[in-house]
Write a structure and sequence with these properties.
about 25% strand; 6-stranded mixed β-sheet; about 25% helix; DNA-binding; alpha+beta
Length: about 250
DNA sequence: ATGGCTACGATCCGTAGA
């Protein structure tokens, strides 16, 4: 079973790449972020044509998340229950007994900004939500764009980024608090080459210089992590014309 | 060298991303 996450940065622009990637990679479940479309404009028919079903929670211009799956999606829940938020950032669904939580965590803009405070508040709410979900779903995956590079090895130039957004201590602590619930970062369950990232700035020839961050992750509950046999980042779509600035992360489970 | 792209929805620039 392959479960992936990909911030597509506009499902409208990236749909041809997504369909090609689904055909080539054959994931069972894909969490998508930054759809940037209202639900009425979500390309459901195209995905169904490709053999997938989908649950989605979108809005115009910003944010938006979807779970695309070959098997039926049950018990679909958008948002973080009890946490009022205009941003469509969270979507949960159960697929063949696996609870899947698709996440587009706030960017935070700059340390100390209002958006930064929102990011930390949001993370606190997420932690409570995942704790509750884990209590009722032993097999759970939380996959998405976490907008946090958990360690210095997840940053191309830790000196340059020191204390900045995505790596500041409060953000890293908020991310670690998710692991403290018992979740595992599936990428780190395995030996990995150095300097593997999931996002590269569009500017500054960042992709060519591999000046990236690993901010997209597939987290798995203990019971699910025990079945994880592989996790890798697929750089191929980032090399295409008009790419998303994020690459897909793919985790494989037995 | 603190910018540099990209997407979007508004117009031909501002907002946001990370």
């Amino acid at each position: 079973m392959k479960l992936a996450t990909w911030n597509v940065n506009s499902i409208k622009v990236r749909l041809p790449q997504l369909l090609d990637w689904l055909a080539a990679t054959q994931p069972d479940i894909v969490c998508l972020q930054e759809l940037k479309v209202e639900d009425a404009k979500f390309p459901l028919a195209e995905l169904e044509q490709a053999g997938y079903r989908a649950a989605y929670s979108g809005q115009k211009t910003y944010n938006g998340v979807a779970i695309v799956s070959k098997a039926p999606l049950e018990n679909v829940v958008p948002g973080i229950p009890g946490f009022a938020d205009d941003h469509k950032r969270v979507l949960a669904a159960t697929v063949e007994g696996l609870r899947v939580v698709c996440l587009y965590c706030p960017n935070g803009q700059a340390v100390g900004s209002d958006k930064y405070a929102y990011k930390l508040r949001w993370y606190q709410a997420l932690r409570g939500y995942l704790a509750a979900e884990l209590a009722s779903h032993p097999r759970l995956a939380a996959a998405g764009d976490f907008n946090v590079a958990p360690e210095d090895r997840d940053v191309h130039d830790p000196k340059l980024w020191e204390g900045q957004i995505h790596v500041s201590e409060p953000e890293r602590n908020a991310w670690q608090a998710l692991l403290a619930l018992g979740l595992k970062d599936t990428f780190r369950l395995f030996e990995q080459p150095e300097k593997i990232f999931s996002w590269w700035d569009y500017r500054m020839l960042a992709f060519r210089r591999n000046a990236g961050l690993r901010i997209d992750q597939v987290l798995a509950s203990q019971a699910l992590a025990e079945r994880c046999s592989e996790c890798s980042i697929d750089k191929a779509p980032r090399k295409l014309e008009r790419p998303s600035d994020h690459a897909p992360v793919v985790a494989t489970f037995s």
